[in-house]
Amino acid sequence: MRNIILIGAGQIGSRHLQALKSIQIPLNIYVVDPSNSSLLTAKERYNLVNIQNIHNIVYVQKPENITGTKKIDLAIVATNSDVRSDVVKNLLRFFEIRNLILEKILFNKLEDYVSVDKLLEEKKCRCWVDMSMRTMPFYNSLKKKFDKDAVLYSVTGSSFGLITNAIHYIDYIAYLSDCYDYEIITDYLEAKPVESKRKGFLELNGTICLNYKNGSKGFLTCFTNGNLPVQMEIISSNCKYIVKESEKKAWVANSKNRWKWKEINIDIPYQSQMTNLVVESILNKGTCPLTSYKKSAKLHVVLLDSLYKFLNESSNTKRKFYPFT
Q: Quick one: 263 and 214 in the same domain?
């Protein structure tokens, strides 16, 4: 049987666990979380999946409580950013891990991006970051439509978690355009941060502007007030899409159909419907369509360094870390 460790059994981690149940390869799954209540919730959610269970699953509060094997085929780390670096380093030192999937935002200190990269190379561990937009069938299909053209990409909505979601949009623009070099303009962000939904972390509202080396541009706007649903627009010289995930609809116009709008239905799968496909690909092929660690770390650092400077210039509080997750 293949061995999988899942670190973090909270909201996202428990959805990863649900997805693992549908994998047809017999697994030993070790679920790790210091919170007993989180483990209980994860177990309940796993049991809700109406599929015959072919896996052996163990719930523990510490990785060192895992006995019987040191060889791990895949580890998924779904913790908050402030502890993820330590978790990853401890895993890589204590176990022989062949493959690793990390949630975003990766880490809250610049030096962690370098030290984890070195350790991954030293341990010869393949690593991806869960930038899932590029794996969703609808969003994945748009790459051919835009054919690496420079794009104008905008997102607008109210209180949707600008910073926690920005890295998804930044990654998706990079995916569409095959360009991972970009810069950020933070001049249009609101100076006062707000409390994140996750205790101890911050969020920002306003607009982030993105300039990519290939000419692509992004505008991510989050309003503090109101209930404006998130809407996305992707435009090139030959094609235009408007996407409303909340309605599971998109509208497309292009030069071939003389810019006449066409409405299409889209499927936006849940995390519990995606992780299984990624994990099966890794176990069977040794690769998957998620963003590699090196590419994602590069995108992360540009975003977080710019926001770090913005916060410290806009406030009397001088932070020594990235307060986002």
A: yes
